[in-house]
Every structure is written in structure tokens, then in C-alpha cells.
What does this fold into?
Amino acid sequence: MTSLSNNTLSRWSTDELLCWSLRGIATIAGTIVMLIVVFLIVEALPVLHHVGLLRFFTDPSWHPAEGLYNLTPMLWGTLFAMTGSVLIATPLGILSAVFCHYYAPSVLARPYRRLIELLAGVPSVVYGFWGLVVLVPLIAEIQPPGPSLLAGILILTIMILPTIALMADASLANVPQQYLRGAAALGLPRWATIRGVVFPAVRSGLFTGVILETGRAIGETMAILMVCGNVVQIPSTIFDPIRTLTANIALEMAYAIGDHRAALFVSGLVLLAMIVALVVSAEWVSRGRMYG
Amino acid sequence: MTPVESLTGPHSRHPLEERPACRAPQPIVEIDRLSLYYGDKPAFQDVTLSINKGCMTALVGPSGCGKTSFLTCLNRLTDLIAGCRVSGQITINALDVLAPGINVIQLRRRIGMIFQKPNPFPLTIRRNLEFPLREHGIRDREQITQIIETTLRAVGLWDEVKDRLGSPALALSGGQQQRLCIARALALLPEVLLMDEPCSALDPLSSGVVEDLIVGLRGRYTILIVTHNLAQARRIADYAALFWVQNGAGRLIEAGTAKQIFENPRDPLTAAYVSGMRG
Amino acid sequence: MAETLSRPQNLREWLAFVLVWGAAGLVTAVFCWLLGDIVWHGIGHVSWTFLTAPPENAGRQGGIGPILASTSLILGVCLAVSLPIGIGTAVLLAEFTSDQSLFGRITRRSLDILAGVPSIVFGLFGNAFFCKMLGLGFSILSGGLTLACMVLPVLIRSTEEGFRAVPASYRLSAAALGLSRTTTLIHLLLPAAVPGLLVGLVLGVGRAIAETAALIFTSGYVDRMPESLLDSGRALSIHIFDLSMNVSGGDTNAYASALILVIMLLAINGTVSWLATYGLHRKIMTV
It folds into this structure.
């Protein structure tokens, strides 16, 4: 009761010191998002101020040098590429995970899972390069010019497939064994078990996976930039070249000045808004899982 | 009253040195209307109890009646549990345990705790004992070596491990790990020892060894021991206290000498429990 | 579960069987095609000279020596900044903040959003903040700092997992012995959390060297050997991009550079799964 030596007193405050310095550090980490938002807004503000947000959707075309800032074709480009690749990658990814868990003999399941992990680690510039030198010439033989929405969709599909496959794989691993034993005891065949018992059990995990892959598809820049042809237009067929929001920034940022530069920051803000919407909906889904 | 040594002071006392045995009741821990809530759910309510110095007090009762939670209040481990709220008063040797400003680290050095599951650190046997000592300001190598030997002898582990003090503590058997944990607590010369079912996670043989060890500590330390094992409580305790769940919260039903509780219980619930009819 | 599954019995089961194997086969085939193509075209040009010599004729000839140097410097800056911040934040979130606290919730939510921010947006931010506002210009420092912001969420997430995998009994018994939280952290928790920390580190490195879009307008294009951190330096991924898009006849060296990049990433990936297995092993041993 009396022996509060200085030694322990100082140690007590070491704890407090540590806690406060950690808080300081975490605050830095936590405020980066704020900083990003603030800087995008600050840089975009001039053009928002004297052009207005509406004109980014109503201007006749994207000719920043002439003060025309229509982002719609790029927005459509992003949406088309995203939708196409998510539509193809989702079934492929889920089937991949199903393969690992329920179809593949264990000698195949392990290496296949490693392969998906490796695909997840390949840099986007390598995918883009491969698309440029292999895929684009192939498409050009079917229907010129080659660099096209189709090439973008195919490359994006390969890139986002690991995301959904790994997410589905993790969800399938959490399916309680008694569900499977119960289904087996009822004499249900394999696919019937998967469709009727497994998929309903992992629905929210799969949905989170879809949201994550969508985020990746929206944000992808380099690969898309390398294979899509980058013509500012709303495509009429999948063989038409397109330009996405991300590619637009990467292409023009190097020489953009003034309002043009600010306009690129506006498209950065649009991208960020899309991602935040996705994160929020992912949160909403995972909260639903707690009650569902 | 035992003089409280300064942390850096001489550490010469033998852990098994004779101390005032449990003769005349002389309270060292006073608990007044203590309640504990996890969120809104009470674990136990309104417990008033005093623990006599140098005596062994057994807390008995069915599972889930708040005995373990009760122990963790005494050394403020409750601080580590989010959403945990304690009200009431605890005084140990005139120190107000629940006062906000007290030095919790100092408090916990003075109150040793043994957990249900042996929990040595993933370090060597020697480091397990040395590390807390160093943290509490004992840095003299010779003194540390001596304390390690004394405490390991005190728990009967010295002959078993003296040649492999450098090997991982987790390689020991469960019973040995538990005795190591007791040695680790004894090395800090605690005034009170809290034991949370120290034998229940062990096999019968190791459990017997640890129980013998605890009996050996009787009269030398003030010990609070939680146990499900009535026979054990009857064998080793001087005092006993029965906890029971009433209206969704643990309550203290009856406390007294072990003799009185087991042979002449006043409360019918106690009578039923000790005769093995309930719980 | 394979024992509960026999041969497909009806049409729908057959169809599913074919679809699942078909999907797996397709993915494997594409992967082999991609990797095979890079290795086939790249392997002939990889040599010691290629790794050390400076690029010539806009990269059509010569090697990637200065580019590897710039890449390592960018990575070094990135890690020097992100490691302390990442580990500190992870420790705070895992050990000093309850899941319900406002501070913890806000920090966690911002990190979730940060993890989803497209790399090109990091590029925009890096350009506006590090290059312009802080006056660092197109430099290795700007690029490394931008990457540091990018890898933080990955680093924090897995370090935090590492801390959460440490059994609660360590904390309780340490507290019961009257050890301070600082001591408990340094001597008990940190060593036990090392596997998670390493996984985070390696994943972060992987993400950083694969990155292109965030670097184009922060670290720049200059392919000379950098002399200081304030020089512009071209990262390997940007080199591949530039050779394939802007330099006609640069494909050969692009292939070789891509091969080097893929090899680096395969090595990193292997390390992660080795660490994960090793970490798991440790966890089982200590329980």
C-alpha cells in the first residue's frame, strides 16, 4: 500500500505514453482517406466552380482543350467493362471454388488453389502486356481493330476472377460439416447438395466476393488502358474500342493543366464515390449476415 | 500484518517460510456488497465476505454462479474485459482495490493468481520465472537464480527440471506446467493467492500432486480457491463459501468455517448441495 | 467429403460435373498460356548483363539495371514509412481498442475504404499532395510515399490478425503477474504475432512492386540511375508499360522485364504461403 516505488510509477506512465503514441500513429493511418478526399476535392474545385457538375454529363463531347467535359462515354466504358467481366468472372470463380471443395481430388485441389493465389498476385501491367501482345491480335483476326471492349472484358475477367474465387473458397470452407452430412444422409447427389444446401449457406460470403471483384474491376487502370484502344466513345458493339475513367486519368494526367487537370480530379472523385458506395453496401450485407 | 516489501528490497524470504497460520480470524480481504455485470447481465450481486489471513477459503457452487468472475475482481483483471462493470467495495490490507487511481500493477504483484488451465508463457522454464521478477525490479542475476531454485523446490519441480531450465515451458506436462505457474506466482511473494480450479484441467495423477502442493501452502498464504470438487474443498479448506444462482445472478448463500458448512449447514440450499443432492 | 460423393447419376448432375471441371480446366489453361507465353518469350533475354546494364535506345536494347535500383529505392521508402505506421496502428486496433469504441470503428472503416481506393486515385492524390503540395516533384520519395499509403491497409489487416491469433491467456496471465502492458506487448505478444506481421509485410511488398498506375505521375519515367531520393526513377512495372505501349520494337525487353517481375512475385507468393503454414504450425504448438 505504501510501496509505490518510482520504478512502477514510471512504468505505469510508459503504458500511457505507448497508448497515446499508438493513437497518434493510428490517426495518421485513419486520416489518409480524409486527406485523399480533401485533396481530390481541392484540386477539382476550380472546374466544379466555373463549369459545374452537371456539364460533366451534358456537354456534347470530351474535348478539355476546348472546354468540353463530357465524362459520360468514359462512365459507360467503365460500366460496360465492369459489368461484362463481373458477369463472366462470378460463375467461373464460384465454380472454381466448388471445384476445389467438392469435385477435385485432394491432389488437384491444393495446386489449383495455389494457382488461383498466384493469379491474384500477377501484376496488372503483366496482364495488360499479355493482353496487348496475345489477345488483341487474336481479336483483330475475328473483327478488327482488335483493341476493344471485348479485350478489356476478357482481361478484367482474368484479373478479378481470383478475388471472387478466393472469397468463395473461404466461404465454402466455413460451411458446417453437419449440413453436408445431413444432405449425404438424405442421399442427395453432389450438385443437388451444393445448390440446395451449400449455396444458400454461403450466400452473403459470395455477395461480398462479388462486391470486392466489382471494386477491383472499376479501379483497374493499366491493363484496361493497354488493351481497350482508348477511343472516347460509347461502344455499339463489343469490338469497338472504349476508354474508361481510370484510363482517361492515366492517359491525360501527364500533360493536363488548369481546368483539364481539375476535370481529371473530378473523375477521380467519381471513382472514389463508386468505391465508397460498394464498401458501404458490403458492410450492409455483412451486417445482414448477423441477423440472417 | 505482514510487512510489504518494497519491490526492489531484499528478497530473502523463503516462499514456504512459516507465516502466521490460520488461528484467530483476522480479516485481510474485506468485500462489501460487490456486484459485477457484463453489459446489463449480472454475473453475481451483493456479495459481502471477509477472508481471513493465512487461511484457505474455498468458493464452491455450481458452474456459472460467478465464482471465477468474483476472483478476477480482486486483482482487477476485470479491467481487461470490455463491457465489464464492478460496483461495491474491496479492501485488501487497507488498500481500496476498486479506487480508480490505484496502481493496478502493484496490486497484481501483491495478489497472485493461478488459472484453471496452466498458462506458462511460450518461453523457457527459466525465463518464465525470471521475466516477471526482472519486470518487478529484481535484476541481480545471483538473486534471481536463487529465487528460481527456491520457488521450484517449493512446488516440487526442481528435481524434475533442474537440468533443463533452458527448454520450453510448453514442453512440460500439464501438471508440471501448473506447478510452474504456481512457482511463478510465488516468486513475486504475493500476500494473497487466487486459485481458479487449479486442478480441474489436469489428469487425476497430476491433480493429486498439485493438490498436495496447495495443501502444503496452507497456513503460509492467504488463499482463495474456487473448486467444483466438494471432497477437495472439505479436505483442504479452513473456510468455505457457497455461491448459487438466484434470479439470474450469482449470490453468496452461506459462508463460514469449512467444518460448519460441511457438517452443520444453516441454509437448506447448502445442506442439499453439500450432501450431493443438488448442483 | 469426397467419400459421400459418387458418380453423377442424372442429367443435371452430369451437366454440373462437366461445368465445374470445365471452369477449372479453362482457368488453368488461361493461366498456363499467360505464364508460358511470358516465360517462353522472356527467358532467352534474361541474363546477368540484362539485370545490370542500363537501358539503351529507349529500352529497346540494354538492360534494366537502373530500373531495378529505382524499384528497390521506391520499395525501401514505402516500407520505411508504412511499417512503423502499420504496426503501430495494428497494435492499437488489436490490443488497445475495443471493437465497439468510436475511435477503433472510425479507423477501421477508413482503412476498409482505403483498401478499396483504385490505385489511379492514389496516383492523383500522390501527385497533388507529395509532388505539388510538399514540393517533392516527380521523385522516388513521392512514389514511395504514395505506395506507403496504398499498402497500409494490407499491412495493418494481417498484422492485426497476427495479434488476434495470440491466445488471450497470455494477456491474462501477464496481467495477473502485474506486468505492464508495454512489457507484455514487447516480450510476449510481439514475438507471438511475428508470423502475421511477416505475411503482412510480404503481401505489402507484393502489392508495391506490382503497382503501376499510382507511380506514373508520382515517381515518373526517367530511366537513368537515380542519384538521390529526390530524383525521378522508373519502376519495373512502368518500364514494362512504357516498352509495350510507347516504344515500338520494345516487346522483347518488355517480355524479359515481365518475366523478372513475375519471378519476383512468385517468390513473394511462395514466401507468404510458407509463412502462413509455418505460422499455423506455431499456433497449434502453443495451444
